[in-house]
UniProtKB/TrEMBL annotation:
UniProt cross-references to Gene3D superfamilies, sorted A to Z: 1.20.5.4130, P-loop containing nucleotide triphosphate hydrolases (3.40.50.300), Ribonuclease Inhibitor (3.80.10.10), Winged helix-like DNA-binding domain superfamily/Winged helix DNA-binding domain (1.10.10.10)
Positions of transmembrane segments: none
Residue span, Disease resistance protein winged helix domain: 416-485
Name of the protein in question: Uncharacterized protein
UniProt keyword terms in alphabetical order: Coiled coil, Nucleotide-binding, Plant defense, Repeat
Domain Disease resistance R13L4/SHOC-2-like LRR: start-end pairs: 558-849
GO MF terms, alphabetically ordered: ADP binding
Organism in which the protein naturally occurs: Ficus carica
Any one biological process term the GO annotation gives: defense response to other organism
Coiled-coil stretches: 31-58
Domain spans labelled NB-ARC: 189-359
Source taxonomy: Eukaryota, Viridiplantae, Streptophyta, Embryophyta, Tracheophyta
Length: 897
């Protein structure tokens, strides 16, 4: 954890000094010197974690104290430099332009401004020198006590070893699980079937999280099918490895298991000779080879050339935590069958749990609720005490240790959220950026880099996507409960975050310097504790139900503007009504989230000062009743011009019809916008709005809602739509769907509400070959029939047809909607029959008929055309109450009666 502790500060401080060195003047030399020391120490400390794990508490105890002192000094430096730059960037009062007498009147304010700046500069210089003395003392202590040399030596020694200590841990866990094979029988059968169906030389990457049972599953398959092959071998891929040693191990295993004499010269063979020997042995044989626990992405690229790919009998299984290992296999070979280790079915998981928890050789836990409830609450300490569980935790920790430095703080950030909490990926990404975890890369936005970080963590099986959007990207994600416990331990080691649980009486443990605070209780920290946390950069508050909000918060501190380094501010789901005027001091604020709060208007003179603001989310609490029409969205009112927000990338939802006459014109300067949501668009403003969107070349999401369901949205004024547009939501009356819709070839999601179109919209929309989700709702179409013609919408996965009062029939022709997985039909009172052609939708998983006319629809239909659909649901309203039926359960009931 040492390199994370120092690295986060270093990553922020070094570029800050290099960019602002002219501003820092006489104190720049001192800060730059310390920054260089931090850079040097960071490179030395990168392997400190591995050395600490390997050598135990003797090493860990001393270096932990040293790193703690070093970290606190680095934090002090960061605070001082940030404060100084903030004040240096303050502008002096403007001279008036209307005459010399006025200028004379402003001279005193200029003198006060420059005197205060000199005092700040002088005071900072002394503070920096004091901190420098302390820093140099700690740095020298690291040399005197041998920490620096020890870590540097440890790094070299670890890299040079032929076997990593993690290999021993894996071996222990493998022995620990070797008797649990029956728990994986369904997964085993699935993999065996893949092996049998394969043709040619097939590679099967088995991907799963640490401790998920990849090795156990592979071993079960190996033992079950090895008799079907002429030869077979199992190779553990240690870290680090050499290609020559992998080939020697494999050849030796194959020869010995085939009762053949291993070539005597094998130890002297180079790679080419080893490859030739292996190929000769495998020629005309049906073989099975398993490479266990591969970490290196390019593994198959280094090994694959040794196998005869055209051989019909070759089967190669690779177990790995890294999705990139599997992806690399796909790039190198044609025949690749990916297998992702799934969670055990409930009955098998329960069976395995009972076997381990209440094993015949004795158990320390009784079968009562109270004891197991206590175990759950003290899971962290139990994991440290129990020898068997320690092995599990060590395996899980390996994934963290193998992470590159830039991903470690991103993973640690999951510890700020409750265990098992699914978190919105976009929220995480924005907070990573605000915390300074994401490094900029040439040619990429910082958001793009952060998304790559998220994809990498998911690909390494450390983070699980619990829900995905129509493009396949993670909408919500979480970490496994045991990994969460590992993260909490790591966070505690470096004071990455302070956790507060329960009442204020539990706050006695608050200690040291920290940058982050996670409050998992109904009370905030009391006044006596606040001084301890004057340097906090991030606070997350959770309600008692673990939702990320503070429902009892009704106002922000008036002096919140003094937190000048704040990058992310959210009052989401709070009772806050007014933003303090001091918010305009937050020069570095990038995200302002007002969603579901009671803030319904913002003065422009406050927001316009936030020149670095990238994300402004505003969707007031529905209790305010500020929507334009029933079922519509709520938007925030902007009082005055906001043309100073040139860095805005996301802006939603703002009202265009109240107190914001300049709003539409201001949008012309927001050329970096990626998401825009406008509520209450008046008919006469359509031309100006769509004229602005021509300049928004980065626009990917657009939501437009008129002032009422009968107010027209003038789409014809958008003659040249944004070429990058992927999501389009339109609520309001449309004359037609304009021809330029056919240009939206990147569109993946479209919603039409209240459009009142008389012509079948599918005639225009069917040209969108990459559309994944289509919603036609609230009389968006007032015709009687919708027909999906042959081959249309080849990528569509979700289709919603809701509240179409005149729709009588829906027809799906062959090959239409080939990938459709969800179909929702609701509140279409004229539709009296099951749509025609649903038997063609072979990938349909969910079919919902919501609010059918009455239960006669359910009992009078022949549902043979949807017999292949796993879930078919119906609802109808009876005496004001909605009743739901599942087709499968309904048939079982009918069969019994």
């Amino acid at each position: 954890m040492a390199e994370v502790a120092i690295g986060i500060v270093k990553d922020k401080l070094v570029p800050l000094v290099s960019e602002e060195v002219q501003l820092l003047a006489n104190v720049g030399t001192e800060v730059k010197e310390i920054s260089e020391h931090l850079e040097e120490l960071h490179s030395l400390l990168e392997d400190a974690d591995k050395k600490a794990e390997d050598e135990g508490d003797n090493f860990r105890g001393g270096i932990k104290t040293w790193v703690k002192d070093l970290r606190e000094v680095a934090f002090h430096i960061e605070d001082l430099v940030t404060e100084y730059v903030y004040h240096e960037e303050e502008q002096p009062p403007d001279f008036p332009q209307n005459g010399f007498p006025k200028c004379l009147g402003e001279i005193p304010s200029f003198l006060i401004f420059w005197c205060s700046r000199l005092i700040q500069r002088h005071g900072l210089g002394w503070k920096i020198r004091e901190v420098k003395v302390r820093f140099n003392k700690i740095h020298q202590q690291g040399k005197n006590d041998g920490f620096i040399n020890s870590i540097q030596y440890g790094s070299t020694r670890i890299a040079a070893r032929n076997a990593d200590p993690s290999n021993v841990v894996r071996s222990r866990l493998h022995q620990h699980l070797e008797n649990e094979h029956e728990a994986f029988r369904s997964a085993r059968d699935e993999l065996v079937e893949s092996l049998d169906k394969s043709s040619g030389c097939t590679i099967i990457p088995v991907v799963g999280t640490g401790g998920s049972g990849k090795t156990t599953l592979a071993e079960q398959v190996y033992n079950y099918v090895q008799g079907r092959f002429d030869c077979h071998a199992w190779v553990e891929v240690h870290k680090p490895y050499s290609v020559d040693e992998i080939l020697r191990t494999l050849i030796t295993e194959l020869y010995e298991l085939n009762k053949a004499s291993v070539p005597g010269s094998i130890q002297r063979m180079n790679e080419n000779k080893l490859v030739h020997t292996l190929k000769e042995f495998l020629k005309e044989k049906k073989y099975l080879v398993i490479f266990d626990d591969v970490w290196k992405e390019e593994f198959w690229g280094e090994i694959g050339h040794a196998f005869i790919e055209e051989h019909v009998g070759g089967r190669i299984m690779i177990t790995t935590r890294h999705m990139k290992v599997a992806d690399y296999c796909k790039r190198c070979s044609i025949l690749v069958q990916l297998y992702k280790v799934k969670e055990l079915p409930a009955n098998e998981a329960r069976e395995l749990f009972y076997k381990k928890a209440f094993r015949p050789d004795g158990s320390s836990k009784d079968k009562n609720f109270e004891e197991w409830q206590g175990f759950l609450k003290s899971l962290g300490s139990e994991l440290e005490k129990d020898v068997d569980l320690q092995h599990v935790m060590q395996i899980i920790s390996l994934g963290y240790y193998e992470l590159p430095y830039n991903l470690k703080p991103c993973l640690l950030y999951f510890g700020m959220f409750p265990r098992s909490q699914s978190i919105r990926s976009r929220r995480l990404i924005k907070q990573w950026i605000a915390q300074g975890f994401v490094k900029t890369e040439q040619g990429k936005t910082v958001e793009k880099v952060a998304q790559e970080y998220m994809d990498e963590l998911i690909g390494r099986s450390l983070v699980k996507a619990t829900s995905v959007d129509v493009t396949g990207k993670a909408k919500k994600c979480r970490v496994h409960e045991l990994l969460h416990e590992t993260i909490l331990k790591k966070m505690e080691e470096i004071n990455f975050c302070q956790l507060i649980r329960g009442s204020t009486s539990d706050q006695s443990g608050l200690r040291g310097i920290t940058r982050r605070l996670s409050i998992m209780s109904n009370r905030l920290i009391d006044d006596s504790q606040r001084k301890k946390f004057s340097n906090i950069h991030s606070v997350i508050v959770f309600h008692e139900d673990k939702t990320i909000d503070a429902p009892n918060l009704d106002k922000l501190p008036e002096d919140i503007g003094e937190l000048f380094d704040l990058r992310y501010l959210s009052v989401r789901r709070t009772k806050v009504k007014i933003l303090p005027t001091s918010i305009k001091k937050l020069k570095y604020l990038e995200t302002l989230d007002l969603r579901e709060s009671f803030v319904y208007e913002i003065p422009a003179d406050i927001v316009n000062k936030l020149s670095k603001l990238k994300y402004l989310y505003a969707e007031p609490n529905p209790e305010l009743k500020k929507e334009c029409f029933p079922g519509g969205l709520c938007g925030i009112e902007v009082q005055g011009k906001i043309d100073g927000l040139k860095e805005l990338q996301k802006l939603f939802f703002v009202r265009a019809d109240t107190g914001a006459d300049h709003l539409v014109d201001d949008l012309s300067g927001f050329t970096k916008l990626q998401s825009l949501g406008i509520i209450g668009l008046r008919h006469e403003d359509g031309r100006r709005l769509f004229g602005c969107t021509k300049k928004m070349t980065e626009l990917k999401s657009l939501t437009v809602e008129s002032t009422s369901e009968n107010e027209f949205i003038e789409l014809e004024h958008m003659s040249s739509p944004p070429k990058e547009l992927k999501r389009l939501n339109l609520s309001g009356r449309l004359k037609n769907l304009p021809k330029w819709f056919s240009q939206l070839q990147k569109l993946v999601k479209i919603r039409l509400n209240y459009s009142q179109l008389e012509v079948d919209p599918l005639d225009v929309l069917q040209t969108m070959r990459y559309l994944s989700e289509l919603s036609i709702r609230y009389n968006a179409y007032v015709g009687e029939q919708l027909r999906f013609k042959v081959g249309v919408f080849p990528k569509l996965k979700r289709l919603y047809l809701i509240d179409l009062k005149k729709l009588r029939s829906l027809i799906v022709e062959k090959t239409a909607l080939a990938e459709l997985e969800e179909l929702h039909i609701g509140q279409c009172p004229q539709m009296s029959e099951v749509p025609t052609g649903l038997e063609h939708l072979q990938k349909l998983k969910t079919l919902v008929f919501d609010s059918v006319k009455d239960d006669s629809f359910i009992y009078s239909q022949d549902f043979e055309s949807v017999s292949h659909v796993p879930l078919v649901k119906f609802s109808y309203v009876d005496d004001g109450k909605k009743e739901w039926f599942n087709l499968r359960n309904l048939r079982e009931f009918q069969g019994k009666s």
